[in-house]
User: Which sequence fits this backbone?
């Protein structure tokens, strides 16, 4: 840990690639881990455009279950550690003059206000359209809504200057947002945290828990576009769909000289390839995982254990 802190102190562009393990301690099930959601369900059919086209009822039950779970979760110590580290006044004593970007795969953001668009540090301009940026929004640094809450807690303990800093974009929601709802027909997208999202899905989260989903909820009873009334879909990036602004994300990865890989099996691309890219460019990689993962082989530092214990030590 001391050697890592020595490297951290010298690093200038720090990225964190976070996966479902970051929120595991908050009660949000991971995809592949023990009790993971995708052990029960075949993600490679559910989280695809083809899977949705074939059975929108099943796919919506899967996402409705995750929405309901995310709405009940609270930040854990790993979220708070990242939230604190995201504030330059706190980071200044740990990694002087460094920039910080969280590239996150978990897409269950539940607070619209921290819709943060990643600002290319080099280019000093927003990478993605600023739509959805709500004035005065406190940026979260994670996507499941837990980090914005964690950041709020941290904000009570820091000076007002950080409020300015905290509003600077720090996050890339690589795989979209669970609470975004996209139309399958027009281009309407809205942030929708309603619980349940529609009457037709009310109570089905219990069925999902028991793995007895009802394949036959009629399309008309599934979420509809509030603009044109067509069938709506979750606003996430499915397997086989391209990552929005992937070139801009690559530019951030290119700039990075330190990559923390936190709570991810490192199996989904292109996210799983970022650490290797940083290493190829002469940067360092630190993996934080409760278990061995495909990320181990790219790790200069491997911290095996719960990230809610290890991240506060590493970034404190
Ligand atoms: C694309 C949104 C162009 C939906 C998700 C190159 C090589 C091979 C394949 C490909 C490639 N390029 C593209 C592909 C195809 C595909 C892919 O990667 N397939 C995989 C299966 C090989 N990628 C794509 O399609 C991507 N699009 O590249 O476009 C293209 C397209 C087609 C073909 C070529 C190019 C789009 C991928 C996005 C998919 N959408 N999410 C939804 O969430 O429902 S992926 C989804 O799964 C998540 O977002 C996340 O990315 C992934 C889950 O991964 P993890 O977060 O790692 O979670 P997991 O449960 O697996 O692991 C948790 C980890 O935490 C474990 O290691 C565990 O030990 C650890 N842990 C648990 N508790 C703790 C902990 N660690 C620390 N502390 C704890 N307490
Ligand atoms: Zn529509």
Assistant:
């Amino acid at each position: 840990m001391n050697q890592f802190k020595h490297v951290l102190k010298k690093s200038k562009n720090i990225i964190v690639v976070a996966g479902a393990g970051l929120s595991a301690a908050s009660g949000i099930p991971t995809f592949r881990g023990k009790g993971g959601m995708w052990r029960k369900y075949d993600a490679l059919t559910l989280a695809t455009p083809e899977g949705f086209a074939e059975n929108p009822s099943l796919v919506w039950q899967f996402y409705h279950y995750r929405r309901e779970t995310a709405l009940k979760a609270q930040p854990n110590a790993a979220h708070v550690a990242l939230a604190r580290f995201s504030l330059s006044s706190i980071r200044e004593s740990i990694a002087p003059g460094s920039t910080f970007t969280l590239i996150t795969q978990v897409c269950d953001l539940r607070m619209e206000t921290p819709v943060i668009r990643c600002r290319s540090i080099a280019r000093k301009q927003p990478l993605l359209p600023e739509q959805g940026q709500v004035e005065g929004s406190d940026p979260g640094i994670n996507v499941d809504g837990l980090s914005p809450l964690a950041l709020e807690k941290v904000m009570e303990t820091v000076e007002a200057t950080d409020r300015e800093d905290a509003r600077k974009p720090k996050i890339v929601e690589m795989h979209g947002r669970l609470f975004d709802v996209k139309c399958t027909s027009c281009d309407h997208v809205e942030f929708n945290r309603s619980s349940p999202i529609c009457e037709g899905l009310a109570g089905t989260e219990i069925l999902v828990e028991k793995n007895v989903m009802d394949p036959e909820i009629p399309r008309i009873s599934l979420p509809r576009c509030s603009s044109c009334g067509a069938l709506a879909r979750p606003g996430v990036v499915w397997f086989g769909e391209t990552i929005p602004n992937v070139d801009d994300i690559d530019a951030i990865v290119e700039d990075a000289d330190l990559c923390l890989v936190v709570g991810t099996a490192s199996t989904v691309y292109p996210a799983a390839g970022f650490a290797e890219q940083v290493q190829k460019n002469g940067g360092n990689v630190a993996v934080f995982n409760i278990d061995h993962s495909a990320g181990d082989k790219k790790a200069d530092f491997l911290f095996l254990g719960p990230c809610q214990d290890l991240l506060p030590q590493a970034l404190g």
Remarks:
- Residues 56-72 form the longest helix (17 residues).
- The pocket of BV8 (ligand 1) is lined by residues 19-21, 24-25, 30-33, 36, 47, 105-107, 175, 236-243, 263-265, 267-271, 288-291, 293, 306-308 (CB under 6 Å).
- Confidence is low (pLDDT under 50) at residues 108-143.
